[in-house]
Amino acid sequence: MIALNKKSDRRRSARFAVQGSKVAYKKAGLFSFLSNNLNVGNPLINLGRHGAQFLTPEFIRAGTNIVLQVDVPLFVGGMCFKGEVVWSAKVPQKKAYRVGVKFLKADKETAQRLDALRKDVFFRRTKSRAAKTAKVG
């Protein structure tokens, strides 16, 4: 399912959801390269040019730097980002937290993949609307 988040907020770019996408992350830091504590299989809620939102069983404090790998079914391999947690909120009646991350750095290839994905999502959404309108009329 593909959905746009039209929420009025402080985001610098539109967000979109891509069904089946997962996030792997680990906390960044001076000695993070020594750690294998990669938290995998976290559902991606939405993604944009400047950030993402995902679910995780772990509370992550705002201001925490993390390294994200976003795995999207359309691509072989994932997209890697360095980011900072902006907010984290408990999901009611679940053992999960919603985490909002702003991207601090992405390599050129990742930025190109993200742009291609965004264009594909908007194309599919427009095409789907046109098909529904054609069926009605």
Please give a structural write-up.
With 137 residues, this protein is of the alpha+beta class. The chain has a single domain (4-131), classed as predicted glycosyltransferase like domains (Thrombin, subunit H, Beta Barrel), CATH 2.40.10.220. It is built from one helix and eight strands. The protein has a six-stranded antiparallel barrel. Strand 4 (39-48) and strand 5 (51-56) form a beta hairpin. It is globular. The two termini are 24 Å apart.
Itemize the secondary structure elements and their pairings:
Elements (H helix, E strand, L loop, with lengths): L3 E2 L9 E2 L5 E6 L11 E10 L2 E6 L8 E7 L6 E13 L6 E10 L1 H29 L1
Antiparallel strand pairs: 1-2, 2-4, 3-4, 3-6, 4-5, 5-8, 6-7, 7-8
